[in-house]
Amino acid sequence: MKSLTLKKMQADHLYQLILDNALDAFVAIDSNSNIIDWSMQAEKIFGWGKAEVIGKRLTETIVPAEYHAAHLTGMKNYFQTGQGPVLNRRVELVAQHKDGAKIPIELAVTPIRMADRVIFSASIRDISQRKQLEESVRDQASITTSILNSMANAVVVSDLAEHLLMVNPAAQQLLNLPPAGMYQEQAFRSIPLFEEDKTTPYPADDRPMARALRGEEVSGAVAFIRHERLPQGAWLSINARPLVSVDGAVTGAVVVCHDITELRESEEAWERQALLLQERASLLDLAHDAILVRTVTDIITYWNRSAEKLYRYKREEAIGEYSHQLLAVKFPRPIDEINAIVREKHYWEGELVHTAKNGQQIIVFSQWVLDFQKGRPLRYFETNTDITQRVQTERALKQSQENYRLLIEASTDHAILMMDPLGLILSWNSGAEKIIGYSQSEMIGQHCSIFFTPEDREAGEPWRELDVARAKGRSEDDRWHLRKSESRFWATGVVTPLWNDDGSLRGFVKIMRDQTAQRLVEEQTKFLANHDVLSGLANRVNFSNQLHQAIAVSQRNDIPLAVLLLDLDRFKEVNDTFGHHTGDLLLREVAWRLLSSIRETDFVARLGGDEFAVIQTDIVQPQAAETLAKKLIRELGEPYVLEGNEVFSGTSVGISFYPQDAKNPVELLKKADLALYEAKHSGRHTYHFFTTGLPAEPTWKTEKDEALRNALTKHQFELYYQPQIDLNNWSVSGAEVLLRWQASPLDLILPKDFLSSAEDSGMIVEIGQWALRRACCQLKEWQDEGLPKFRVSMNCSLRQLGDPHFSEMAFSILSECGLPPSCLELEIPESAFVHHPEIWQHLSALRTIGVRITLDNFGIAATALMDLKDFNVDTLKIDQGLVQHLPHRREDSAVTSAMITLAHDLDIKVLASGVETAEQLRYLMGRDCTNAQGFIFSPPVTANKFKELLMYGQWSRVNPSTTFREMNRFKDLH
Fold first, then answer.
1. Running DSSP on this structure, what letter comes out for residue 505?
2. Which of 121, 396, 545, 590 is deepest in the core (most CB within 10 A)?
3. pLDDT at residue 832 in the model
């Protein structure tokens, strides 16, 4: 007997330990609602000690007064009917703490019938924290949705199957999408994206959404889109990010699209590489929905990855199975009733209980859409969202908070701030700090008007913007603002109001984007499209437009106008003597003198090279054009002092009149050109009017192909030579051979004016063969006369290199002239190597016998380093476009230094072309450049002049001993 009593005491003790350590509170009452048991968790929740409540009624402790009657009625009903609303199920109610405070609880009551009485056991859970979490989720969701809907960028979110779960208004407009959920089959892959050529469909696997779903982060992907709302199409810059669950699994993707059409067009017009667009981060974590498709007979035909994760069935396990049987679905009403609703309304939604593969029961919010084809039901689209209460609430809050933080803080190219209803700033992201300059601590509590301009503040714009947003739901503006430094920036801004659940105004969200660079580019593009960069004068296009307008006014007013066409005298001599830099300075000075010499009603332009034009309007007196021509000849004939050098030039002027000489701009300019040609033939530094007796344009301009064919037979071609200097021993290591065409006594034509015609006609092969033979024989003559040994360097065109007999021809000429192959160097354009690597086969035979190969214009094309290694060239020739800005332009200096280092590492010599100043030469020598050529040594000269330079050592305009002393001092310092 004693043993039985002990066992009972041990059992009672164990029972009490279980109750006191359970997460839920347990309370037991008798049929009169008197408390007979009270767990330790109940003491923690309600504040009553066990000794205080035992024997008391439930209505005297935790049941609020307003629920006393309901409680007692429920007890009475149970004893009458055996049923009650809170029996054997969990319901949410309100209880009362000892201090009178109300507590939300979840209650489940189980009646226990004993031999002599009925005991009611209540399991009670405090759900205060859960209620707070749910409220936080609703607040976070409201803020996030407001921000996304106010963003100018298009934002879409998809699940793992690329089905769109969220589409903001900007995305609906830009991508031609319906709101998310309107069509369940809508997927991002259906959006018509194209590659750079605007016709090739964007590869499915390379699309930003597909890459993000593979776990990649995509920034700045460029695509072209065209649809019914955008018949002309638009350029998009696309960022994409994967959506990741708490346990690190990819569950979907978010894509942000920015319309860069205007920027793209500006960049193309300016021939700039597209870059610029700065990265935008926008992450939003959504519910991980399980999506499946099933036939009308309930057979699964599609099963996404979220379904795999939720139900633990792999896709291959689920497809082909009966859905309701596989998931052991529990319906809230008979399935026949649900199917009837779906067939009538094509849609149904409600809560279901599914069973996963591991036996876990999952409560889901299920949405069914019945798809019809030709009026007959075809299949069901089913979306299931896990709404298991506590897990879902906590996860949604954490994901929403993290998403909100990343969305705001990662948007460094957008200033995002939140304000209270009066416009006082409540939050200030890193993008706002970057764009406006104020830190977060400086701006919290300040009014948003602080970064508006004084004139906008005086006009009340900051307050008007908030009023418009409050009244219309959105306010947009493009205006100048002030940074902390008081500098101004141009920004686009959007303000959206935030509302509380009761309809009251919570505050505002303002999003701004700095568009200063784009606005300045637009303004600069407009200027550069109509002006010459070097002189600042109007360009040829602008001149043509002005001439059209001037003719129209002249015709309307019946007052003539004149066109004066000017060509500088001795401009080529200035370039050859002092270099292209001095020539540029001369052109700028000429432009200034022209502007100073004309009336405000006249118009002056630089048409190209050393050619200028003036439109003289309202010529009431016939001699007005002659007077202006004399003035221009006098002004431009005065000496020029350019960087310490006195330079003499001058001009010749050709004049034509409207309507006397021509009735349209093209003919008017052509007549002025003929008059100019006559003025130059009359001795230069003069002017000439167009008359009907003037000869036509020179034959070489109008019949260039025929003139080129005759040039060889008439011996009109001549070779010029420019020395190449070895900077290690200050000697002539080679001479670049340059072609000139003396088409007439007054017309010495440079290759840029006739080589393209020679290429097109095929004459370049014959001309090149003549030039190679003449240069090799000339070098042999100089060697036989005892002059220092060096190489001749010949430029080769793509047409020459494509000739299958080129290498045989070159070898034959070397043998004919008796010149060793090592004395010949062939300069091959870098672009030829890049686009036509097959030419290396033609050059290999020549290089094998000793002919040297130079990669010309290096730094202009895009030679791959692996190709450079495989080509085995002897010399890299740095393009003069890089050399001319040394050492002042940082980018050119860095690229040039890298090229020299690369050449040394590959054991290749390097030659800098276009060296004009001692400063450029010092920079190149300081970086161990091995060879150089340019006007600082000598311009291209005739063969006789080159021989004199070699014989008397007058090929250099710098003192070599001084240069070497400076270089040694530089090396000592470093």
1. E
2. 590
3. 66
